[in-house]
Write a structure and sequence with these properties.
Elements: H1 17-27, H2 35-48, E1 52-56, H3 59-68, E2 77-81, H4 90-94, E3 98-102, E4 124-130, H5 139-148, E5 152-156, E6 164-165, E7 168-169, E8 176-180, E9 193-197, H6 200-210, H7 233-243, H8 246-264, E10 270-271, E11 287-291, H9 299-308, E12 314-315, H10 324-328, H11 338-346, E13 347-350, H12 358-373
Parallel strand pairs: 2-3, 2-4, 4-5, 5-8
Antiparallel strand pairs: 1-9, 6-7, 8-9, 10-11, 11-13, 12-13
The protein binds pyridoxal-5'-phosphate.
Pyridoxal-5'-phosphate binds at residues 58-60, 84-85, 87, 130, 156, 158-159, 180, 182, 193.
Length: 374
């Protein structure tokens, strides 16, 4: 693996992580049973003001189980944005349901909620709403539409733990909401995920599915097909220490974003992220740049030049309607979603990890200026 001078993400693990992890090793509970799992789930549920929190092995696993818990049938329709990670569409395709894609808002990069209602048919059952790159989906109109048409909402909060929409925590809107604890997320356990809900049936189903649908009365007798998506006590011990610092992490993330904003705002060639809207303040999960049509430098060249300086960057998502595997399976043959397409071809994000220093950010800003101003 190439080591960058400034990696695109480096987590911050300098609180109680080591202490709790050592306690876990000392107790000998390293798999999925153990006090830390229960404690982490309890504290997570409390933070989101939800009755149930079910830890799982990744954000992708969380989406799979959340989706399965809603009992969607073949040919039923699910609305989601094209500009998101493939994890959002996997459970839909695997269930034989029909994904219906929405284009993004060019300013917030989130699903354009004004385009949802036109796509609703008698077969629509669910909206999957992932918050993208640090700004939330405009949840009020989305929830209004969901209520009007009796649709369930899966709120994918993988990138948005700690983000607020009109002072309400993201992840608390959906009938079921999902989170990821991969190393680049606001809190990390290496790999990991969480599902939260107030619905007992959804919670029970997710718990059962995560544990290969073992049944309580007679072990090894199964009435349903599940997965092993269990989360470990080791991971939970780190998660608990990370959760203690979430509020500080959010402050740091905003600071990272604002330092970049200040340093990069006078460069004409690209658009920088919006700092706030009337409903939210950006928490810059990642700090994205979108090159304008008249940029003198292409995305590829910019990334290459930054790489030469030891600065790692990453492309934006590739839109779902242009994913080779989905096209091969016959999906989205004649679909055009211009905003998602533009973002994917012209967007990149800069190092935005919680361990980044202001000196490192200054280095990144200086090099970008040098590239554009020569
Ligand atoms: C919006 C979104 N949903 C889901 C996931 C999947 O999470 P994981 O990598 O933990 O499977 C990610 C990962 O980055 C994500 O950005």
């Amino acid at each position: 693996m190439k080591k960058y001078k400034i990696p695109v993400n480096e987590p911050s693990l300098i609180g109680n992580e080591k202490k709790y992890l050592l306690r876990c090793l000392k107790d000998g509970y390293i798999s999925s049973s153990g006090a830390f799992v229960k404690e982490f789930e309890k504290k997570f549920a409390k933070r989101l003001k939800k009755k149930y929190a079910i830890s799982v092995s990744s954000g992708t696993a969380a989406l799979q189980l959340a989706f399965e818990s809603l009992n969607i049938k073949k040919k039923e329709e699910v609305i989601l944005p094209s500009f998101t990670i493939i994890s959002c569409i996997l459970p839909i395709v695997r269930a034989g349901a029909v994904p219906v894609l929405i284009d993004s808002d060019p300013i917030t990069w989130n699903m354009d909620v004004n385009k949802i209602e036109k796509k609703i048919t008698r077969k629509t059952r669910v909206i999957i709403a992932p918050h993208i790159y640090g700004m939330p989906v405009d949840m009020d109109p989305l929830m209004k539409i969901a209520k009007k048409y009796k649709l369930k909402v899966i709120e994918d909060t993988a990138e948005a733990l700690g983000l607020k929409y009109k002072n309400k925590e993201c992840g608390s809107f959906g009938d079921v909401s999902t989170f990821s604890f991969y190393a680049n997320k606001h809190i990390t356990t290496g790999e990991g995920g969480m599902i939260v809900t107030n619905d007992k049936q959804i919670a029970e189903k997710c718990k059962s599915l995560r544990n290969i649908c073992f049944n309580d009365k007679r072990r090894f007798l199964h009435y349903d097909l599940g997965w092993n998506y269990r989360f470990t006590n080791l991971q939970s011990s780190i998660g608990l220490a990370q959760l203690e610092k979430l509020n500080r992490f959010v402050i740091k993330k905003r600071k990272i974003g604002q330092i970049y904003n200040k340093g990069l705002s006078n460069i004409e060639a690209f658009n920088i992220p919006l700092d706030k809207t009337k409903y939210a303040k950006n928490i810059y999960w990642v700090y994205g740049l979108v090159l304008k049509k008249n940029s003198p430098i292409s995305l590829k060249v910019l990334m290459k030049k930054l790489k030469k300086y030891g600065i790692e960057t990453r492309n934006f998502f590739w839109p779902l309607h242009q994913q080779p595997i989905l096209r091969k399976m016959g999906f989205f043959r004649n679909i055009k979603l211009p905003v998602a397409e533009y973002l994917s071809k012209n967007g990149l994000y800069l190092p935005t990890g919680l361990a980044i220093t202001s000196l490192q950010q200054k280095f990144v800003i200086d090099k970008i200026k040098k590239i554009f101003f020569k």
